[in-house]
Amino acid sequence: MKELKVRVDYTPLKEAIEEFELSENQIFKQWGIQRKTFFNIRHGQGLTVDTLARLSVILNKDISQLVDITYDIIDKPEE
């Protein structure tokens, strides 16, 4: 059996938001991105592909420029 451990780093997304000098409030009001999204970004929790797509449009960047995804595949012994 295999286990997949995925890590998503939102550092590039945070940097892009800072670079564009956008506040969470602006993104929330102008683009309808939920406030919980910013909590998730700060705490490394999941975002939907739809939300990432919206942020990529707002920031004029490809999704792959906004997140770093790494993963490990771990072989687990059969039980």
Could you name the key traits of this structure?
single chain; 79 residues; alpha+beta; two-stranded antiparallel sheet; 44% helix; 20% strand
Chart the SSEs and their pairings.
Elements: E1 2-9, H1 11-19, H2 24-31, H3 36-42, H4 49-59, E2 68-75
Q: What is the radius of gyration computed over CA atoms, rounded to a whole number of angstroms? A: 15 Å
Largest sheet: 2 strands, antiparallel
Shape field: elongated
Tally of DSSP helical segments = 4
Cα separation of the termini: 9 Å
Protein architecture, described:
The chain has 79 residues and is of the alpha+beta class. The chain is built from four helices and two strands, in the order E-H-H-H-H-E. The protein has helices at residues 11-19, 24-31, 36-42, 49-59; strands at 2-9, 68-75. It has a two-stranded antiparallel sheet with strand order 1-2. The longest helix has 11 residues, at 49-59. It is elongated and about 50 Å long. The model has no long low-confidence stretch (mean pLDDT 89).
Nutshell version of this structure?
This protein has 79 residues and is an alpha+beta fold.
